[in-house]
Amino acid sequence: MSVDAVASRLNPAVAWVLRSPFHWLLSPGLMLLSYTGCVSGRRIAIPVGFQRTGDRVTIMVSEAPRKRWWRNFREPRTVSLLIRGRTRDGCASLVSPGSPAFRDAAERTLRRVPGMGRVFKVDFDRRTGLTPEQIDHLAQEVAVVVVELDLAD
Length: 153
What we know:
- This protein starts with a helix and ends with a strand.
- The protein has helices at residues 3-19, 100-112, 116-120, 132-141; strands spanning 30-36, 43-49, 51-53, 56-61, 77-83, 86-95, 143-149.
- It has one domain (3-149): Electron Transport, Fmn-binding Protein, Chain A (Pnp Oxidase, Chain A, Roll).
- The protein is built from 4 helices and 7 strands; from the N terminus they run H-E-E-E-E-E-E-H-H-H-E.
């Protein structure tokens, strides 16, 4: 069974935990992202890893060429996040690969969670930061989705 098949079978269980009073077990690193699919028009909810800074939530999508969900955000779209047991609305958009914002998101994530280097297949050195070769690699393998949270929430 492929890793993707295992992940897709685990997603409903992870989503259930994130919606339950036991969300605190997974909430430090996972949230539930809900949106309406561009093509299907269906409401979709998937658990994703995240980093939050103020009213900005960053999602780093590993193995992006093998996944499709993040492509819904090529144009800004309204989303709901179930983050640490609380629902927040916002606007999600895809960050252009290789852009300064892309580099900043990757660098911030790797500094905050150094183990993500293994997931993204880069040998990140906190002293020197990302090399141009690593940025090129990440631009091919990772997608970055940023959610600006609504201030009214």
